[in-house]
Amino acid sequence: xxxxxxxxxxxxxxxxxxxxxxxxxxxxxxxxxxxxxxxxxxxxxxxxxxxxxxxxxxxxxxxxxxxxxxxxxxxxxxxxxxxxxxxxxxxxxxxxxxxxxxxxxxxxxxxxxxxxxxxxxxxxxxxxxxxxxxxxxxxxxxxxxxxxxxxxxxxxxxxxxxxxxxxxxxxxxxxxxxxxxxxxxxxxxxxxxxxxxxxxxxxxxxxxxxxxxxxxxxxxxxxxxxxxxxxxxxxxxxxxxxxxxxxxxxxxxxxxxxxxxxxxxxxxxxxxxxxxxxxxxxxxxxxxxxxxxxxxxxxxxxxxxxxxxxxxxxxxxxxxxxxxxxxxx
Amino acid sequence: xxxxxxxxxxxxxxxxxxxxxxxxxxxxxxxxxxxxxxxxxxxxxxxxxxxxxxxxxxxxxxxxxxxxxxxxxxxxxxxxxxxxxxxxxxxxxxxxxxxxxxxxxxxxxxxxxxxxxxxxxxxxxxxxxxxxxxxxxxxxxxxxxxxxxxxxxxxxxxxxxxxxxxxxxxxxxxxxxxxxxxxxxxxxxxxxxxxxxxxxxxxxxxxxxxxxxx
Lengths: 329, 214
What we know:
The structure holds 2 protein chains of 2 kinds.
Chain A: H1 11-22, E1 27-29, E2 35-38, E3 47-54, E4 65-66, E5 71-77, H2 83-93, E6 99-104, H3 107-119, E7 124-129, H4 149-162, H5 167-179, E8 181-187, E9 207-210, E10 221-224, H6 228-241, E11 250-257, H7 263-279, E12 283-290, E13 300-308, H8 310-317, E14 320-322, E15 326-327
Parallel strand pairs in A: 3-5, 3-6, 6-7, 11-12
Antiparallel strand pairs in A: 1-2, 2-5, 4-14, 8-9, 8-13, 9-10, 11-13, 14-15
Chain B: H1 14-30, H2 32-42, H3 47-59, H4 62-65, H5 70-85, H6 89-103, H7 110-128, H8 138-149, H9 156-168, H10 193-212
């Protein structure tokens, strides 16, 4: 293992500290509190709070700022934050209009955010992100997990919260967004959790793991490596099977790298995905390409498709100023 | 599981409390690499690291903990686990200990202990929206609860062996909760890491009690 670190146990705290130093105009990290919050809070606005295990950077801390999250609590690597941490983050950004939590659907995250919610006594709701389509939902699992689509949910809810939408209206928007946002990923390698020093699993040079999550864990199936066009066609067809696609609808496409795949490959995948999506009759009108919801140094990518309508498209285009996403301001 | 019948158990001595805390923590630390290896097969490969962080936080408070009455120790241990482990293991083990603490004062015989243990298992099921048979910690705790509730006289050694058998029995199960559930049928054939942790802690408690409370 080769990593730019001091001690494995200090990675999360030291990385957050660095983020706060390099973005001190928009972010504050409370020393020892293990959450990042916006420097300037919008009074009377619903607080949007998320969080999860670390190692998915820039998710979630990189999405704190104007037009997106008010606070993000970061757990240990791939480990949900604890209830006390989440409560501290909520209390730091709640200004009287209530709190909306964005939670990725993993048992650990759900339990810790539930415990935190039980400890708070003001208006609080949660949106559970379940965009991964790789796992058959047959009652034998926890349900679909939350992966790269979380970025889209956080961006669009953040824009609506910034415009002053009340909590109940944000909930309806959030549930609609989750229903029309789906993702699927493929890994070319696993990743190395620094405390473990070796990769979580090994893949041969001619293999890929289909239906992976964002923790370097095994996926649904292991198959022979294929070319980018074929991989894109497969991912797009799986995602579209799970979306209520109407004829000639508009779509937002996220080509998300898992951390170790260079932009030259992600841009190439954007081309392949674009062809596959158009072939299926959808019109891709917005794109985001890059390493946004990562699994440390895992190689591979996921494709997320969100079905757009005028309202969601306008919220996506609304100004955002975070360390990882910035446009319109 | 000795046979007091009327009065509640006298509280354990500080020395025994210290041995219990130390031995449970040492046992988890000693097996941390094994727990991580088990988690690499069906999860994200950090269960040993997380459990070890939890027991280190407990170890750091040993001096204060041994001064407390047993229910307060259980409460505090649960809280330390929740606030330090995170992930799924924090809420699961933390909720179990905190629920045991609630009625622990009423413990006076196997029947009352069985009630307390059963409440602990139910709280874990509620927290994780889970039930037996889903390849989780519950698959160790629920059979032990059943044994206690059966009312049959039960030695510490038998209880300990039952914990091992129950953990072993998670191997052929298909996971339906936690990250392992994402593997579908590929989770079959692996020992559940959380079940192994529960087994280790129960065996550690039984071995100290067998030595110290003859």
